[in-house]
Amino acid sequence: MTVRKAWIAVGVAGSSAIAFVMLLAVGVHVVAGNLAGGAGGGAAKTLAKGAVPAEYQKLVATWGNLCPAINPALLAAQLYQESGFNPKAQSHAAAQGIAQFIPGTWATHGVDGDGDGDRDVWDPNDAIPSAATYDCALAGYVKDVPGNLTENMLASYNAGAYAVIKYSGVPPYEETQNYVKRILSLEKSFAAPVGRVDPSEQAAGAIHYAQEKLGTLYLWGGNGTADQGGRFDCSGLTKAAYESVGITLPRVANDQYNAGPHPAREELLPGDLVFFSDDLTNSRAIRHVGIYVGGGYMINAPRPGAVIRFDPIDTPDYFGATRVTEDGAKALPTTV
Question: Quick one: which of 105, 106, 78 has its CA closest to 160?
């Protein structure tokens, strides 16, 4: 939703620019068709750039390797799902802190992660190690259950180890099955890619939608509705563009960053979301987003008083990119 500084103003409009984007859009379909089903990476053990706020990166990277059932990206996905990395989060069910422990579970599984003599559910230095420790304890309870150990551990976190043992794997509860799928999908968003990131087949449609909005005046909080005169802010435009091809993104830019894996700058393809921030170590500080169209340019709604336009992405505040996937978008919590 927020506005990026206008580092460089360019006037890349007109029929030649539109034709250029349409050519790119067609190319995305071709690339997606050629690469679909290609080899993917395994379970990455390193975190994507800035995916975890800087003050928690070392904790997540260290404790995320506590046992074979977890890894740093998986632990990060759980923390994001539970609290959005908010150490003061409290749910209506009395779950507390960055890892959302309920008091009874904390009493049993909370650990003094920083060795300061207390176990404080509100202190991430205790809560993050406790989350990893609890995951590994659950993995130990279900280590002899058939199937994937990590999936069984996640199911135990949601439904209890007894249910996993009873059903010899992930139990047939819709909530539990969805929880396991969400965390495993989010894990890909928090992991540094270890191989090629496949392109989205919906990317061309998203670009086409954004292209149709070129020249539309910016509106803070704009979602493109009729009562808003069809106007957008930055994340309102990207949300609407992907919604036009059946993918629902969160409303704000820093949550949209978690809608899929993160290609490097040299691996960008048209349709990728590109993000900007004054803090290049923390995805929660992202304040602007656009849709990459190739050639170092994006379509974006830049700021009040400006119109939706082409802008370069190679600016000092460039944070990174996300290749939107349906599973990644569906996995995102509705509130964090």
Answer: 105
297 vs 311: CA distance, rounded Å: 5
Continuous H helices in 11-94 = 15-35, 54-63, 72-83
- Comparing 6-15, 48-57, 154-163, 280-289, the range with the smallest average pLDDT is 6-15
Please report the sign of the dihedral spanned by the C-alpha atoms of residue 135, residue 96, residue 192, residue 35: positive
DSSP letter (8 states) at residue 311: E
Give the pairing of strands 309-312 and 318-322. Answer: unpaired
Contact criterion met (CB below 8 Å) for 124 and 113: no
pTM of the model: 0.79
Q: Check residue 266 and report its DSSP letter.
A: G
CB count within 10 Å of CB 117 equals 6
pLDDT tier at 334, thresholds 50, 70, 90: low
Question: First and final CA of the chain: distance in angstroms?
Answer: 16
* Residue 275 identity (one-letter amino acid): F
Give the model's pLDDT for residue 335.
Answer: 63
Q: Which residues pair with 274 in a beta bridge?
A: 290, 321
269 φ/ψ angles, rounded to the nearest 5 degrees: -125, 155
Of 259, 262, 223, residue with least CA distance to 333: 259
Backbone angles phi, psi at 78, to 5 degrees: -65, -45
Q: Is the pLDDT of residue 112 over 80?
A: yes
Could you give the CA distance from residue 190 to residue 285 in angstroms, rounded to a whole number?
Answer: 16
The single residue listed with the structure tokens 């150490």 is 87
